[in-house]
Design brief:
451 residues; alpha/beta; five-stranded parallel sheet; 11 strands; 39% helix
C-alpha cells in the first residue's frame, strides 16, 4: 500500500515546491501544455459555453479543476495494489485555485463528500494559481443578451436522464444539458439522444455542454489504472455547477435518477460499501448543497425523481411516444463493452444491476437489444456474472416479502438520511419497496443456481 499525492501544475514553469510525506508517492498532473490553454477539455468547455453566452465564474472553474484532480486520481490509482484491503486508498490532491482561502475553508467538507462517494481516505490542499493564471475566465460582454436557459440538467445518455430531458422540454423549459463522456459508447448514446430531442423540439433553444475527460494518457509510474469509477459523479456534478455559475443567477442543477438507484440499498449481506455506489444518494446531494453554500455559489442540486421508481418515471413521462421511440438508443448497462471479447457488439448485457432495473421499468414496452435476451430461458449460474445480480435481487425481494416493515430500516444501510424528514424517509422506504416489486415481476420464472 502506498499513499499518493496528485499535484496540479499550470505549465512547466510552475515549479513551486510541495512538501510530501515519507510514504507518499507524488505525481504531477499537468493542466497547461501550451500558452494559457487548459488541457483535459477545460478550455474547450469554456469556449463552447461562451458561444452560448455562458461565462462561468473563476470559482466555478476552480471546482471543475478540482474535479479533474479527483477523476485523475480515482481512475489511475489501482485499488488492488495501492490499498491495504483491496479497496480503500489514501489520496491527497493539491489544487491550484483562484482563492485558496475560500477552498481551504471547505477542505474538510470536501473530504467528507469524497470519502463517502468513493470509500477512500482523501486529503485536500489548495494553493494559489501561479503568476499569469490569476484570472482565466473571459468576462461576460456587457451588451450580451442573457442566455435563454432556465434549467440545468445532467444528460448522461441513460434512460433516466432522457426522461428528465423530455419532461423538462414538455414543461416549456429551455434547459442546458450537461454531458460527460469517458468512453465511445456513452458518447454515442448521448449524441444520438440529443439529436433525437433536437429533431422533436425544433422551436426550443435548449443546448448541451459536452465534456470529455478520461485521463487515459495520464500515467502514475509503476501503478496500474483502476477499473472502478466511483468518483465520476463528482466530475459530472462539478461540470454542471461550473456551467451554472455562468448563468450569473440562482440556478438549480437537476440530477434525474430513480429513487431505487439513488438509494442503492445493498441487496444482500455481502454487498457492503465497496459494492454499492452512492452517486445520487440523498446524503451525498445534501453535502453538495452544503458545499455550494459554503463556497458562495448561488445554486443547488436536486433530484426531481427521488421518490419515483424507474418504471414510474417511464410511465409518468410527459411524452411517452417520444420516450418509446428514443429509449432503445439510451444506455443503461454498467459495462456496455464487456461483450467484445465474445465478439458481441457494444450495448446492453441484460443481466447487470442497471440492465435488470431497466428491463423491469420498460417491461411490456421494451425494444432494447440485450445480449442475454431471455432471462428465463435457462437456469442462471450465480457463480458467473449472468446470474449474480438476479440472485441478489431474488434474495432482497424474498427478504422484504417476509418482513415488509424492514424497508424502513434497509434504506439507511447505504448511507445516512439525517437530512431527510420523517415523511421523506417514509417515501424513500416506499420507493425502495415498489422498486423491488418491479424487479420481482421481471424475475418471475427466472431460475438461479446455486443459491
Amino acid at each position: 500500500m502506498r499513499r499518493h499525492v496528485i499535484i496540479g501544475r499550470f505549465g512547466t514553469s510552475d515549479k513551486v515546491s510541495i512538501p510530501t510525506g515519507e510514504a507518499e508517492k507524488a505525481t504531477n498532473l499537468q493542466f497547461v501544455v501550451s500558452k494559457r490553454r487548459l488541457e483535459h477539455d477545460i478550455s474547450s468547455s469554456l469556449e463552447a459555453l461562451s458561444k452560448l453566452g455562458v461565462f462561468p465564474s473563476e470559482v466555478g472553474l476552480d471546482l471543475l479543476i478540482l474535479a479533474a484532480h479527483v477523476q485523475a486520481a480515482d481512475t489511475r490509482i489501482a485499488r488492488a495494489t495501492e490499498s491495504q484491503d483491496d479497496w480503500t486508498r489514501e489520496i491527497r490532491v493539491v489544487v491550484p485555485v483562484s482563492e485558496p482561502g475560500r477552498w481551504n475553508n471547505a477542505a474538510s467538507l470536501l473530504q467528507r463528500i469524497l470519502d463517502f462517494l468513493t470509500g477512500d481516505r482523501w486529503t485536500l490542499g489548495f494553493r494559489a494559481r501561479p503568476t499569469g493564471f490569476e484570472r482565466i475566465v473571459q468576462n461576460r460582454p456587457a451588451q450580451l443578451i442573457s442566455p435563454p436557459f432556465d434549467q440545468l440538467a445532467l444528460f448522461s445518455g441513460g434512460l433516466d436522464s432522457l426522461i428528465g430531458a423530455i419532461d423538462s422540454l414538455e414543461g416549456s423549459h429551455t434547459p442546458l444539458l450537461i454531458s460527460h463522456a469517458g468512453d465511445g459508447a456513452t458518447s454515442d448514446a448521448q449524441n444520438t439522444l440529443f439529436k433525437g430531442l433536437k429533431k422533436n423540439y425544433t422551436k426550443n433553444n435548449f443546448e448541451r455542454l459536452r465534456i470529455w475527460m478520461d485521463f487515459k494518457n495520464f500515467d502514475i509510474k509503476d501503478v496500474e489504472a483502476e477499473k472502478t469509477t466511483r468518483g465520476r459523479s463528482f466530475l459530472f456534478l462539478a461540470a454542471g455547477i461550473f456551467a451554472g455559475t455562468g448563468l450569473r443567477k440562482n440556478f438549480v442543477l437537476n440530477v434525474p435518477e430513480n429513487g431505487l438507484i439513488a438509494l442503492n440499498v445493498p441487496l444482500d449481506p455481502l454487498r457492503l460499501g465497496a459494492f454499492s455506489t452512492r452517486t445520487t444518494h440523498p446524503f451525498y446531494i445534501a453535502r453538495w448543497n452544503e458545499l455550494l453554500d459554503l463556497i458562495g455559489i448561488p445554486g443547488s442540486i436536486e433530484n426531481p425523481y427521488w421518490d419515483k421508481t424507474k418504471g414510474e418515471m417511464a410511465t409518468g413521462c410527459r411524452n411517452t411516444d417520444l420516450l418509446s421511440k428514443l429509449a432503445p438508443d439510451s444506455l443503461s448497462c454498467a459495462s456496455p463493452t464487456k461483450g467484445r471479447w465474445l465478439g458481441l457488439s457494444t450495448g446492453h448485457c441484460g443481466y447487470c444491476l442497471p440492465c435488470l432495473i431497466r428491463r423491469a421499468a420498460l417491461r411490456g414496452n421494451d425494444r432494447t437489444t440485450y445480449a442475454l435476451k431471455d432471462l428465463a430461458a435457462a437456469k442462471l449460474d450465480t457463480r458467473e456474472a449472468e446470474g449474480q445480480q438476479a440472485r441478489s435481487f431474488q434474495f432482497a425481494i424474498e427478504r422484504l416479502r417476509k418482513k415488509p416493515q424492514l424497508a424502513a430500516l434497509f434504506i439507511h444501510k447505504s448511507g445516512p438520511l439525517v437530512d431527510e424528514s420523517s415523511a421523506n424517509q417514509a417515501a424513500l422506504a416506499g420507493v425502495y419497496a415498489r422498486g423491488l416489486n418491479e424487479i420481482a415481476a421481471l424475475l418471475t420464472g427466472v431460475r438461479t443456481s446455486p443459491s
